[in-house]
């Protein structure tokens, strides 16, 4: 897929980007190159590749999913500017 200067001008206008006229043609060539590279990636056969989130296999740390009170409200609130009854006190923002 090739992109021409008119398409770059239109996209720049839609994105509200002021692009000088002399830069439209170089941008069109650069974007066309990027799209050609993406099309090249589509040719890679990934049918036997499992989806993954990282290149390195790292098991996620697991723990029991149980509700607790946190166990240490004093430590949690130790750096709070203001606290009351084991809760953070914040300024009122809605009248």
From TrEMBL:
Listed GO biological process terms: glutaminyl-tRNAGln biosynthesis via transamidation; regulation of translational fidelity; translation
Catalytically driven reaction(s): L-aspartyl-tRNA(Asn) + L-glutamine + ATP + H2O = L-asparaginyl-tRNA(Asn) + L-glutamate + ADP + phosphate + 2 H(+); L-glutamyl-tRNA(Gln) + L-glutamine + ATP + H2O = L-glutaminyl-tRNA(Gln) + L-glutamate + ADP + phosphate + H(+)
Pfam families: GatC (PF02686)
Top-rank lineage group of the source organism: Bacteria
Enzyme Commission number, as recorded: 6.3.5.-
SUPFAM superfamilies with a match to the protein in the record: Glu-tRNAGln amidotransferase C subunit
Keywords in alphabetical order: ATP-binding, Ligase, Nucleotide-binding, Protein biosynthesis, Transferase
InterPro entries: Asp/Glu-ADT_sf_sub_c (IPR036113), GatC (IPR003837)
Annotated GO MF terms: asparaginyl-tRNA synthase (glutamine-hydrolyzing) activity; ATP binding; glutaminyl-tRNA synthase (glutamine-hydrolyzing) activity; transferase activity
Function: Allows the formation of correctly charged Asn-tRNA(Asn) or Gln-tRNA(Gln) through the transamidation of misacylated Asp-tRNA(Asn) or Glu-tRNA(Gln) in organisms which lack either or both of asparaginyl-tRNA or glutaminyl-tRNA synthetases. The reaction takes place in the presence of glutamine and ATP through an activated phospho-Asp-tRNA(Asn) or phospho-Glu-tRNA(Gln).
NCBIfam families: gatC (TIGR00135)
Quaternary structure and interacting proteins, as annotated: Heterotrimer of A, B and C subunits.
Family label: Belongs to the GatC family.
Protein's recorded name: Aspartyl/glutamyl-tRNA(Asn/Gln) amidotransferase subunit C
Source organism (scientific name): Phenylobacterium soli
